Amino acid sequence: KAIGFARPRLLWLLFLEASLGVIPAAAIGMLCALLIVRSLAGARLNLPGIMLTPAALAAGVLIALGLAILSSVLPVLRIVRLNCAQVLRKG
Fold first, then answer.
1. According to the model, what pLDDT value does residue 50 have?
2. What is the DSSP string of the chain?
3. Disulfide: which of 11, 43, 72, 76 matches 18 by Cβ 3.0-4.6 Å?
4. Distance (Å, rounded) from C-alpha 6 to C-alpha 12?
5. For a pLDDT cut of 90, what percent of the chain falls above it?
6. Closest Cα to residue 22, out of 64, 60, 54?
7. Residue-wise pLDDT tens digits, 26-58
8. Is 10 exposed, middle or buried (0-12, 13-18, 19+ CB in 10 A)?
9. Percentage with pLDDT > 70 across the chain
């Protein structure tokens, strides 16, 4: 705020920061789950009906987006209430 960013821009920056932390981790987790299920479930564990469906992958993406939104809510609330003059005086 002190260097001239508008409030909507700050909100998007905070959401982007949270997304960059959550979404790659969720993608790696879903990829690992997909590889494990394909390699172990049918052949080694004798569980031929277990598979990762597109609906399960879509649910994982929606959960990751929800976590990104939830993890950016508290910093957004702090930024919105922030008074730049007080912060600059305190250092």
1. 73
2. -TTS--HHHHHHHHHHHHHHHHHHHHHHHHHHHHHHIIIIITTTS--TT----HHHHHHHHHHHHHHHHHHHHHHHHHHHH--HHHHHHH-
3. 72
4. 10
5. 8
6. 64
7. 889 989 988 888 777 766 667 667 777 889 889
8. middle
9. 77
The closest alpha carbon to 52, from 72, 67, 32, 81, belongs to 32
Residue 65 dihedral angles phi and psi, to the nearest 5° = -65, -40
Length of the chain: 91
Query: How far from the centroid of its chain's Cα atoms is residue 78's Cα?
Result: 19
Q: What is the rounded CA–CA span in Å between residue 25 and residue 59?
A: 15
Mean pLDDT across 67-85:
81
Residue that is written with structure tokens 């809510």 in the block = 73
Q: Which residue has the tokens 């979404």?
A: 23
With a cut of 70, say whether residue 17 has pLDDT above it: yes
